Give the backbone structure.
Amino acid sequence: MSIEIQGINKFFDKFQALHDINLTIPDGQLTALLGPSGSGKTTLLRIIAGLETPEQGRIRFSGRDVTDLHVRDRRVGFVFQHYALFRHMTVAENVAFGLNVLPRKERPGKPEIRKRVKDLLEMVQLEHLADRYPAQLSGGQKQRIALARAMAMRPEILLLDEPFGALDAKVRKDLRRWLRSLHDELHFTSVFVTHDQEEALELSDQVVVMSNGRIEQVDTPLELYGRPDSRFVFEFLGQVNVLFGKIRDGVMSQGDAWIRLPEGCENDDAQLYLRPHEVRLTQSASDEAHLPFRIEAINLIGAEVRIELKPDGWECEELWEVGISHTEFNARQPQRGDRCFAVPDVGHLFCEHAVEPKTLEWR
Amino acid sequence: MATNDLSERPTKRLSAPATKRVLPGFGLSLGISLFFISLVLLLPISGLFIRAAGMGWEQFWFVITDPRVVASYKVTALAALAASLFNCVFGLLMAWVLVRYEFPGKRLLDAIMDLPFALPTAVAGITLATLFAENGWYGQYLADVGIEVAFTPLGIVVAMAFTSVPFVVRTVQPVLEEMAPEDEEAAMSLGASDMTVFRKILFPTLWPAVVTGGALSFARSLGEYGAVIFIAGNSPYISEVISLMIFVRLEEYDFPAASAIAAVVMTVSLLLLLAINVWQGRYLKRLHGG
């Protein structure tokens, strides 16, 4: 079931939480609403569910207008950040809740309900906890029960509000993979809210980046990371190194730092954005770039060695970060305080007087 | 060798007080608390029972089963039951309004809820009696439809309900405040109707608090004196409450009889509160795990 969102505006008193949101969420895909807190992503999710009412705009499920439909009649599964399990009911009673409150005519018989609950608990691999109370479960178990409860009504749309936000890193990773495989198996349309870029990029087919109640960009994870539309998306998705400077005759410079731009760029104030993997570290400056640094910190944990760099003779707001392989690190053995130079391979140029960013290549 | 001994001593001293508490003053503060509880609560209560015990079992039984006293038990218990049931419903509603809605004057209303506790009970009694008297503001209209409140058992219920309603409001309020609206939203997203949400989600969470509030309200109503006697009419066998019976016996200088009746009231109140505590402890343990 696809979801079409058209011209949604939402106010809380005088504060406008959503500005004219237009979005189509395709059938059977896993879509992430990504943004910092206060960006309106949860509000949008709650509007899709029917837990909030927009002041303007329409919501359609596969063409059917559901804007004025009450949450209980929309038949969507909703999973809350803090699980919202009913504390006075056992796990089995929680999962059976939706079935038990159906009108008598539609309600399946007791044995049928029991079987459905058993199947659902098997699906989340927690059959052995059927008679426990929520207070006796761990966070990860609670979230899986909450998911089983939402799935009990066989919804075609599943909405998840920061589903892994309250869990620790290890459990979060496991649950993420598990949700992905469950989605691939059952093919419902799901939308989840997250502020974690890694989670959004890893899990989803489509990412909607939001800030200040507006949609910044809608794209696949690959496109989003490779070609961000705006500075906001660039900065929000992963680490980024920024050089502020002025372009004069094809050379961008600031203090001791300068870089020769490959194509004909207009004279302008500009910012050059570089991902850590788009930059190489060398002992001497190249013909195209002169970006001197001092090594500020070295972080050995992870697949790559991350090196934090402090500009030497020029300025930037945040330290630069470059990743080098462990092999390269062992060969060169750089130390804190060493002087070195950054050489860019690919960069993204934002000029003051241009709307679109420009992707530059040096190789 | 001597130097060796010296160097060992401090390490021994350091490891000794392993059970030292971080917060100071436990012994002193607990001691003072227990002393005052004994002085102002336990000692007078024991005195009461000792005095009642002094009269012998047969005499005791005779005093507490006197027909006029038995009639007052019935009046008091029934009126207290009616008042606390009313308070459970009204107090729940009041707490609901105070927690769930925003409206001008909410803080004022919240403060006013405590008025029955702050007001001298005699003042409450006189006010209620005036209002509900046949020519009072409420009384005259109630008289038109044939309901008499002042100087009847119904008046006792009104006075008891008035003086004890904050118990329910103040016990339910924090529980409601703590309750996450997500539970209700989750139930609704699963298709539950408003009524089902109340019955299956809200009420199971709220009712321990409602029962506790109701029990406190009941226990308080059992002993209510000041507010009740002005509006009750106090006719023997019809509208006399227990506390009035105690007072009557005192006026007759029959102290043992007064203590005997008082001991009955107290035992009932105490058992009630104890039962509620035990039951609630079990229920909450299930909710919060352990």
